[in-house]
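Design job #97: recover the sequence.
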C-alpha cells in the first residue's frame, strides 16, 4: 500500500501561504480523485481544494486555523494498487469495495467553480503525477473500522519499483484531528454547509446554539445572522462582532490578527495610495429619470428573472462614458513606462463581505446587454456575499464602482484598485428639494465621486467622464449619443 502526501498548491497569482479553514473529510474516509477535502483562505478568497489522489485518508497533517506555506504536506492518502492517481486518460479509480456504505459529503450539493486545480506532490521518481481539474463532486465512503489502524506509524512507499527506500512518517497522533460537528439546539448534530460554518466563525456564533430552520434540519445563513443579531427563532440573544464574541467583562482591548483578505486589502490600499497620485472630483445631480427607468425595468418581462437597481444603470453609464474617455479605463505600466488603454471593460464592484472587502469584476461588461449585465451583477453579488469569490473573478479588473450609498453615505474619496486608473463612488439617492425651472420640487438627488490616477488621467479627462456619466443618469435617453 502506497501513501501519498498532498501538498498545499498555489491556487493562483503567486500564493505563498494560506489558512486552512475547515476539513471536509476525516481520518478513515475513503475519497476519490477531485473529492473536496478542505477549504483554505487565501489573501483574496475562500477556496476548496480537491484531492489529486484516491484512497483512504490516513492523516490530517494540519489543524484548522493554521497558516500553511505552499508546498507543505496537508493530508496523507493511503492507496492500494487498485486505487491510484487518475492517469492521463482521466479514468476514475474503482469504487469502494462492497459492504462499505457511502455518506453524503457536506459539500456534495454545491456547484463546482472551475479554474482551480491543486498541484499534486511530486512522485518519488521525480515525475509529476497528472492532476485532473475540478470534476463532479463525489461521495465520501467512511471506513470507521480502519480508524484504529491509523494510530500506528505509516511508511511512505513509492508507486514505482525503482524508487529509493521509503522513509518513515511521524505518527499521526501529533496532528490534531478536526473536532466532531457541534450538537444543535434541538439536541441533534448541527448540520450546516461550509459557507454557513465560515459565516458562523466570522460572526463568533456557536452553531450548537443556533436553531435550524433550513430544509432537512440544516442551519441557514439567515439562522446564523438572526442569532448573531440577537433575534433567533427561539429568542436567543448574542452580542458579537465581525471578529468574534463581544469583549469579556473588564476587557479593554481586542487584538485582531491581520491576515487573509484584510491583509491583502491593507497592502493593496497602502501601495495604491502612495504610488498613484489621487485626484477626486464630485458631481451632484437630479437622478429622478433614472429612478423612473429602474421602476419601469422592474415591470418589464425581459427583466423578470434578474434584479434591477440603480447600480445597473450606473454600470451601463460607466461603460458608455468610457468610450469617449478611454484613459479612464487604462493602467500605468511602470516598468515599460507606458499607459495601457484597455479596449474592454472588466467592471469591478466593491463588495463588503464578512471576510472583508473584495472586488470581483464582470468580464467584458461593456459588451453585455442590459439584461445580461443585470444577471452578471446579481450573480457576482450573491457569490461575494457567500464568501466564495475566486481569485480569477477578482483578477483583470479595469474600472471599479463602489456603492457607498447602500450605507446611507452621500459621497467619499475612494482609493484606486491597484492596476486601475479610476474608481467611481456611488452615493445614496435621496429625495431632496431641487430647483426645476423656476420652482422648487422634490426630486431624487445623488452624488458621484470619481478618484483617478493623475499620471494617466488629466483633470479635463476626469471631468469629462464624470459629466458624461451624470448626464446619462440625469436623462437616460442621452445614452443613444454614446
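Job complete. Output follows.
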Amino acid at each position: 500500500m502506497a501513501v501519498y502526501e498532498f501538498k498545499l498548491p498555489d491556487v493562483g497569482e503567486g500564493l505563498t501561504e494560506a489558512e486552512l479553514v475547515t476539513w471536509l473529510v476525516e481520518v478513515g474516509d475513503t475519497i476519490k480523485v477531485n473529492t473536496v477535502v478542505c477549504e483554505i483562505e487565501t489573501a483574496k478568497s475562500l477556496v476548496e481544494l480537491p484531492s489529486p489522489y484516491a484512497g483512504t485518508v490516513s492523516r490530517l497533517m494540519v489543524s484548522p486555523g493554521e497558516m500553511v506555506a505552499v508546498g507543505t504536506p496537508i493530508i496523507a492518502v493511503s492507496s492500494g494498487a487498485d486505487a491510484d492517481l487518475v492517469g492521463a486518460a482521466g479514468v476514475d479509480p474503482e469504487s469502494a469495495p462492497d459492504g462499505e456504505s457511502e455518506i453524503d459529503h457536506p459539500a456534495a450539493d454545491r456547484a463546482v467553480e472551475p479554474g482551480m486545480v491543486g498541484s499534486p506532490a511530486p512522485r518519488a521518481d521525480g515525475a509529476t503525477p497528472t492532476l485532473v481539474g475540478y470534476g463532479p463532486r463525489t461521495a465520501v465512503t467512511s471506513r470507521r473500522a480502519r480508524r484504529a489502524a491509523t494510530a500506528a506509524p505509516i511508511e511512505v512507499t513509492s508507486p514505482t519499483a525503482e524508487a529509493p527506500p521509503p522513509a518513515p512518517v511521524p505518527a499521526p497522533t501529533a496532528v490534531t484531528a478536526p473536532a466532531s460537528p457541534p450538537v444543535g439546539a434541538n439536541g441533534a448534530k448541527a448540520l450546516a454547509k461550509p459557507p454557513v460554518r465560515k459565516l458562523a466563525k466570522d460572526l463568533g456564533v456557536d452553531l450548537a446554539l443556533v436553531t435550524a430552520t433550513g430544509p432537512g434540519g440544516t442551519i441557514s445563513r439567515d439562522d446564523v445572522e438572526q442569532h448573531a443579531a440577537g433575534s433567533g427563532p427561539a429568542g436567543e440573544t448574542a452580542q458579537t462582532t465581525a471578529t468574534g464574541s463581544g469583549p469579556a467583562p473588564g476587557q479593554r482591548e481586542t487584538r485582531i490578527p491581520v491576515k487573509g483578505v484584510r491583509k491583502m486589502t491593507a497592502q493593496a490600499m497602502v501601495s495604491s495610495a502612495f504610488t498613484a497620485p489621487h485626484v477626486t472630483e464630485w458631481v451632484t445631480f437630479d437622478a429622478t429619470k433614472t429612478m423612473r427607468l429602474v421602476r419601469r425595468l422592474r415591470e418589464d418581462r425581459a427583466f423578470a428573472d434578474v434584479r434591477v437597481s440603480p447600480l445597473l444603470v450606473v454600470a451601463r453609464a460607466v461603460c458608455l462614458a468610457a468610450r469617449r474617455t478611454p484613459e479612464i479605463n487604462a493602467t500605468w505600466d511602470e516598468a515599460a513606462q507606458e499607459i495601457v488603454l484597455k479596449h474592454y471593460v472588466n467592471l469591478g464592484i466593491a463588495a463588503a463581505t464578512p471576510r472583508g472587502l473584495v472586488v470581483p469584476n464582470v468580464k467584458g461588461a461593456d459588451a453585455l446587454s442590459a439584461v445580461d449585465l443585470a444577471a452578471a451583477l446579481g450573480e457576482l453579488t450573491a457569490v461575494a456575499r457567500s464568501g466564495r469569490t475566486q481569485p480569477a473573478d477578482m483578477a483583470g479588473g479595469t474600472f471599479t464602482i463602489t456603492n457607498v450609498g447602500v450605507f446611507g453615505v452621500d459621497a467619499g474619496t475612494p482609493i484606486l484598485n491597484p492596476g486601475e486608473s479610476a474608481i467611481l463612488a456611488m452615493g445614496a439617492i435621496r429625495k431632496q428639494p431641487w430647483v426645476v425651472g423656476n420652482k422648487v420640487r422634490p426630486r431624487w438627488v445623488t452624488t458621484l465621486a470619481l478618484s483617478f490616477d493623475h499620471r494617466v488621467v488629466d483633470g479635463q479627462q476626469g471631468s469629462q467622464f464624470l459629466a458624461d456619466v451624470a448626464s446619462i443618469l440625469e436623462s437616460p435617453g442621452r445614452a443613444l449619443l454614446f
